[in-house]
Predict the 3D structure of the following.
Amino acid sequence: MLSVAQLLKTYPARRRAVHAPSRAVDDLGFEIEAGHLFTLLGPSGCGKTTTLRCVAGLTTPEGGTIRVAGRTMFSAREGIEVPANRRGLGMVFQSYAIWPHLDVYTNVAFGLQVAARRHRVGARAIRRRVERVLSVVRLDHLAGRPATDLSGGQQQRLALARALVMEPPLLLLDEPLSNLDAKLRDEMRYELKRLQRDLGITTLYVTHDQHEALAMSNEIAVMRDGRIEQLAKPRQMYERPASRFVADFVGTTNLVDGIIERREGADRYVVSTDVGDLVATSAAEYPTGLPVCVLVRPEHIELLLEPASGRNRLSGRVEATVFLGEGAEHRVSVAGRQFKVRSSAALEVAPGSPVMLSLTEERCAIVPAD
Ligand SMILES: Nc1ncnc2c1ncn2[C@@H]1O[C@H](COP(=O)(O)OP(=O)(O)O)[C@@H](O)[C@H]1O
Ligand SMILES: [Mg+2]
């Protein structure tokens, strides 16, 4: 549906800049299947917004091609650049615009009413679509209110509703939930995902929020310095990050440096580390002696209060515990290294207590040591 290849964008260096201009987007390529929600995830400044603006036609790249549903929107080589207003895409940006002189309902209905003259959408159908979208973004009770009398978060939802109601072939969303408080953001994640799926709107979504990306996406591309570091489905991204950078950025993690000691069977390795030998899994080939990292998530470490021996068992001491409501997170020091460990909130353990950590072998992954 959307295909981006070899995209390049450099901004001119600032005056008195020490460094040469760096590439905001550097040889970027990805494809989005029709009906999928594809997320560009990465820290601030990695090039997410620039990529989205190139697809929208608001920024001109120096190189590459952009195709939407087989139609070339941009091609540096062929000298094609379709103007933004002819690309027929829906978008909501970090800085969103709404029509201040119209009320909420009319803001959302406006685009459909204009299109209705061409596509013969009936007044009843328009009302149904507007009401559905307003209820998704939780603005149905404010339909009659002037747009200027909305809070920042409500205006953001209005901008979203306006784009959604058009059911565009491709929807571009740049941090559309960033101005909402935590609870509303959680709820809107589900609603937005549901609507996107129900309507089958192919969506390019941009966020720096890993939870949002994991919850909503069919595929995620983690970006770093204008490039894609890893492209994967959410579960794979979380369980099998391809690099230290991705492991750190997506979810809370424990990373232990080590060296491949030996292979055990098809997918298991013994890794020698500062805290002892750890058994970890990977389908990749690693030669003995190679420096690697062992990755294990806090929820895949069991905290034992009784001494126990066996593989992937480490003895340590609890340094601190924070209560998270649905569970607890502990900092446990093992041979001078800290591990983050999740447990149920029911487990009570005082700071300073000696404990055993049991790392689930199947859940210990190997990540290249950069
Ligand atoms: N209009 C601009 N002029 C100069 N540099 C820019 C401009 N827009 C973005 N940049 C730079 O390009 C890089 C990528 O920015 P951006 O795409 O906004 O990142 P993100 O959306 O991931 O935070 C950053 O280093 C940023 O400072
Ligand atoms: Mg941005």
